[in-house]
Amino acid sequence: MNALTLAAADTPFIDSGNTAWVLAAAALVLFMTPGLALFYGGMVRTKSVLNMMMMSFISMGTVGTVWILWGYSEAFGPDVGGGLIGNPFTHFGLKGVLDAIYGFVPATKTAAAAGGIPGPAFVAFQVVFAIIAVALVSGAIADRAKFTAWTVFTVVWATLVYFPAAHWVFAFSGYAAQTGGWIANKAGGMFLGGAGAYDFAGGTAIHINAGAAGLALALVLGKRIGFAKEPMRPHNLTLVMIGAGILWFGWFGFNAGSALGAGAQAAGVWVNTLAATCTAMLGWLLVEKLRDGHFTSLGAASGIVAGLVAITPACATVSPIGALIVGLAAGAGCALAVGLKFRFGFDDSLDVVGVHLVGGLIGTLLIGLLATKGSPTGAAGLTVNEGLFYGGGLSQLGAQALGAFSVLIFSFVVTYLIGLAIHKTMGFRVDEADEAQGVDLSEHAETAYDLSGLSGGRFGSGSAVTTTASAKTKEGAPA
C-alpha cells in the first residue's frame, strides 16, 4: 500500500461508510486464517491434521497479543531508523491510539483519522494481516515441528521480521504516525531516479516475506522421514477446496479493504482481484494437463491461491487486462515452481516457496511492466508511475525488484538465525518416533478422525487421551 493510493482529502468527521467497510474487510481477513487452516489441514496426512490447523490458530493468539503490546507501534509508530523500524514504545499497549486524531497523536476525542477512519479501525485491519503472514510460514514445516517451538517462533518472527518489513513497505500518510518506510518512499530514488515501490496489500511484506521464511525454516528442520521416497498425498481434498474458497472470499477484504475506504479504488481492486484469480486457476490447470495429463482439484485450489498472492501487490496499479496477465503468469509459473523442492532437495511441505515466494515475486515485479494510469488508483484521480510497457521506462521495475529482493534476503537470513537458535536451545523438530506416529498424538494427544467406534469395540469411539495412552503402552512407556 503506497501513500499515492490513499484518499486525496481528509475529512473532519468519522465516515461511517468507510469505517464500516474497513471493519468488515478486517473480519474477512481474519476469517482467512481459519480458511488457511482448512487449506493446509487438508493437504497434510491424516496423522498431522490437527497440528497443522493449530499452527494457524495459535498465530491468532500470539500475534494478536503482541500486536497490541508492541507490534502496532513497531510497524506504524514514529520512525526511529531511517525508514527501518517504528518506535515500539510510542504506542505500547495502543497508548494514544484509541483516542487519537488524524495522525494518531493523542489529543481530543472529537476528530477523526484520515479519510474518516478512526484509529482503532486501522489497528484492527492491520493486525489480521500480521496474523496470517505468520500462519503462512507454517506450511513449509508440516508434519515435523514441535508445537511449543512453533509458538515461540511466532512471537519472535513477528517481532524481528514481519513488523519491520511492514514498516519498510507500507506508506500510510495520515493513517499512522509515520509515512512509510524506505521501500515505500525511497526504493526507486536510491539509484534509479524513481519513486518508491508499489505494494498495495502486502505482496512483499506478507507473501515474499513468508515464502522466504518458509524456505529458511525448511532448511533448519530438514526433510520429513520418507521425503521424495514415499507418497505424501493430501488426505482430504474436500478440506483443501473449502479452504481455498474461504481464502478467495476473504481476499476481497484483504485487497479491496486496503483502499481504506468504500470508493472507486476499492471497487476496481475488487474486480482486479477476481480477474487475476480466475486466470491463475486456468493457468495452473493448463500446465497440469499438458505436463501430467489431468486437471486436479488440488491444482485448481493451488492456482486460486497463486493468483490471489500475485495480484495482492499489483491490484491497484494494473488494469483489468493487466490483472488477467498477472494471474495467468502466476498460475503457470507457480505450477512449475512447486517442483523446485525436488530438484534442489529442500522439503517445503505445502509449497509455501513455490506459491507464496514465487507468486509474490511475479506480482511485485510485473507492476514494473504493467502499472498504468488506467488502473483503480488512476481511476481514483491519484498519480501512478507507469511501467515499462506503458512508456514508463525501467525505474519502476527497478524499485519493485529492489523492494522484493531486499525483503526476501532480510527474511531468509533473520528467519534462518531465529530457527537455528530455537532448534539449538529448545529443539524445533520432534523426534523420529513422534514423527512416525504423527504429531497430532505426540503434540496434542488428539486425532482428527477417531474411528475406534468402527472397529467393533465394546464402548464405541474412545477418547484421544485413551488412544495416546494405548500408543505409549505399546511402545513400552508408562500410560
Automatic annotation (TrEMBL):
Segments of this protein annotated with the region Disordered: 460-479
Subcellular location per the Swiss-Prot or TrEMBL entry: Cell membrane; Membrane
Membrane topology: Multi-pass membrane protein
Keywords for the protein's UniProt record, in alphabetical order: Ammonia transport, Membrane, Transmembrane, Transmembrane helix, Transport
Record's compositionally biased regions (Low complexity): 461-471
CC per GO annotation: plasma membrane
GO molecular function, one term: ammonium channel activity
Coiled-coil region(s): none
Segments traversing the membrane: 20-40, 52-70, 121-142, 149-170, 200-222, 234-254, 266-287, 294-314, 320-340, 352-371, 397-419
Cell wall biogenesis/degradation keyword on record: no
Ammonium transporter AmtB-like domain: residues covered: 20-449
Any one Pfam family match given in the protein's UniProt record, by short name: Ammonium_transp
Domain of life of the source: Bacteria
Presence of keyword 4Fe-4S: no
Family, as annotated: Belongs to the ammonia transporter channel (TC 1.A.11.2) family.
Identification of the protein by name: Ammonium transporter
UniProt lineage: Bacteria, Bacillati, Actinomycetota, Actinomycetes, Micrococcales
